[in-house]
């Protein structure tokens, strides 16, 4: 019965996508028969009737050996096919990797020729047992698998050197990273991968050359919401990809810092409802928070000098600012501007609530925990860079471009999460909020 079953089980071969090379396709019937018949042969081998008959015993042992070989060959063959299809696009399709890994490229060329020869001859013998028990087939496939694993390890080591050079590559899937490295000399082909390396840089604008084609000099960045921020100076996207992506990170931070420096003094020079449309959403929020921190600190100074209504005046100012924002929201706005105003509205509501809390609890000094526990923004005296203060944690603002993602309502629980996570960061520890879905864990961390 086992002989009958296996005489009708054939291997199937179909070409790989975008290739003429054949790929082994194993029918589920083969795997099922392999499992059932191996079990049946084991039971037969243990039977006293078979053990007492030399001919039966020999046949059972012979079939056990054949099916064992079939199992091994099919597993190794599948592994070889999988690794070959993954590495072929890398070693054959990428000139850059061939230059970087010359020895492994030569090794792969040998495997490639051998694998293609096996796959060309494979359809000549379709019967599963005959094909798998051909002389030397298992050994040949095992040698190929060993060499492919060597190539794979060399490739992983090569990717690791790139990840060390540009650590954001650790967050990129290996297949995408290979794509980035193989096309790294052409920035236009890397743009679609930018969102994997940056929080919200989805595209960049480039200067054009004489023919009207994009050059390698990037002049601004675009967020996923289509907000545009210009770089201070053109960023040259030339050379190894990990080097010029590092330059893009520097340009991004510099662009936001320059915009921050320019927008902070303008805050007092024009009405707030006009000022908030002068810069990116990110800097509108950061400057507003910084000014709010300054004003509360000044209110506490005035309290010490005898002005008992200083905090109350501050609360009234927040209420008036909110009224101004509501007026703007009810007017006609572009989609991006509306999102910016709504985010500012959320931040201002929280600022008003903080003032209310300070009034309700009769806080009269700036060193009180009710104020120290808030997320406060200020400028470092020496560097002029923005700093974030929560309790005794002082964390430099990193100017990572986040675009205009919107903002969730800030609750007392959010404030507690801020304290916990910033303290963890100060102590070089980690933290992870836990709770039901859709409660704002990710947004709070962001």
Produce a short descriptive summary.
With 446 residues, the chain is mostly helical.
Q: Can you lay out the helices and strands and say which pair or pack?
A:
Layout: H1 2-7, E1 12-15, E2 22-25, H2 28-45, H3 48-51, H4 54-91, H5 95-100, H6 102-121, H7 128-132, H8 137-165, H9 174-182, H10 187-190, H11 194-197, E3 203-208, E4 214-222, E5 228-236, H12 241-266, H13 272-275, H14 281-304, H15 310-330, H16 335-360, H17 369-372, E6 376-379, E7 386-390, E8 393-396, H18 412-426, H19 441-445
Antiparallel strand pairs: 1-2, 3-4, 4-5, 6-7, 7-8
List keywords for this structure.
19 helices; 446 residues; single chain; three-stranded antiparallel beta sheet; mainly alpha
Summarize the structure in words.
By secondary structure, the protein is mostly helical. 60% of the residues lie in helices and 10% in strands. It contains 19 helices and 8 strands. The protein has a 3-stranded antiparallel beta sheet with strand order 3-4-5, with helices on one face. Strands 6-7-8 form a 3-stranded antiparallel beta sheet.
């Amino acid at each position: 019965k086992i002989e009958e079953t296996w005489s009708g089980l054939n291997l199937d071969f179909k070409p790989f996508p975008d290739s003429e090379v054949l790929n082994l396709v194993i029918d589920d019937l083969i795997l099922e028969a392999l499992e059932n018949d191996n079990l049946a042969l084991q039971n037969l081998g243990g039977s006293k009737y078979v053990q007492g008959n030399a001919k039966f015993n020999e046949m059972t042992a012979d079939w056990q050996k054949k099916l064992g070989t079939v199992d091994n060959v099919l597993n190794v063959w599948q592994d070889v096919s999988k690794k070959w299809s993954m590495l072929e696009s890398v070693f054959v399709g990428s000139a850059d990797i061939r230059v970087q890994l010359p020895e492994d490229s030569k090794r792969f060329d040998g495997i490639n020729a051998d694998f293609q020869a096996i796959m060309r001859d494979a359809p000549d013998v379709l019967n599963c047992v005959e094909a798998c028990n051909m002389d030397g087939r298992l050994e040949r496939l095992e040698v190929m698998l060993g060499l492919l694993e060597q190539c794979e390890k060399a490739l992983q080591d090569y990717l690791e050197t790139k990840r060390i050079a540009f650590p954001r590559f650790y967050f990129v899937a290996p297949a995408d990273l290979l794509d980035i490295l193989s096309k790294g000399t052409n920035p236009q082909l890397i743009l679609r991968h930018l969102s994997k390396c940056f929080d919200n840089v989805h595209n960049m604008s480039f200067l054009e050359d004489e023919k009207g084609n994009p050059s390698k000099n990037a002049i601004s960045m675009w967020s996923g919401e289509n907000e545009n921020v210009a770089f201070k100076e053109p960023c040259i996207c030339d050379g190894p990809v990990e080097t010029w992506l590092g330059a893009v990170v520097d340009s991004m931070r510099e662009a936001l810092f320059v915009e921050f420096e320019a927008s902070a003094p303008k805050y007092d020079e024009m009405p707030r409802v006009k000022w908030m449309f002068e810069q990116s959403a990110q800097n509108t929020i950061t400057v507003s928070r910084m000014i709010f921190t300054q004003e509360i600190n000044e209110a506490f100074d005035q309290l010490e000098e005898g002005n008992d209504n200083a905090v109350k005046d501050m609360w009234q100012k927040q209420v008036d600012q909110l009224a101004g924002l509501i007026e703007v929201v009810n007017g006609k706005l572009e989609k991006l501007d509306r999102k910016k105003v709504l985010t500012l509205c959320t931040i201002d509501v929280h600022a008003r609530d903080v003032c209310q809390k300070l009034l309700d609890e009769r806080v009269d000094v700036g060193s009180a925990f009710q104020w120290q526990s808030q997320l406060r923004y200020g400028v470092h005296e020496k560097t002029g860079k923005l700093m974030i203060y929560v309790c005794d944690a002082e964390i430099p603002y990193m100017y990572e471009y986040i675009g205009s993602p919107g903002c969730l309502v800030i609750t007392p629980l959010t404030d507690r999460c801020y304290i916990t996570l910033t303290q963890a960061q100060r102590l070089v520890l980690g933290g992870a909020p836990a709770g039901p879905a859709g409660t704002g864990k990710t947004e709070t961390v962001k």
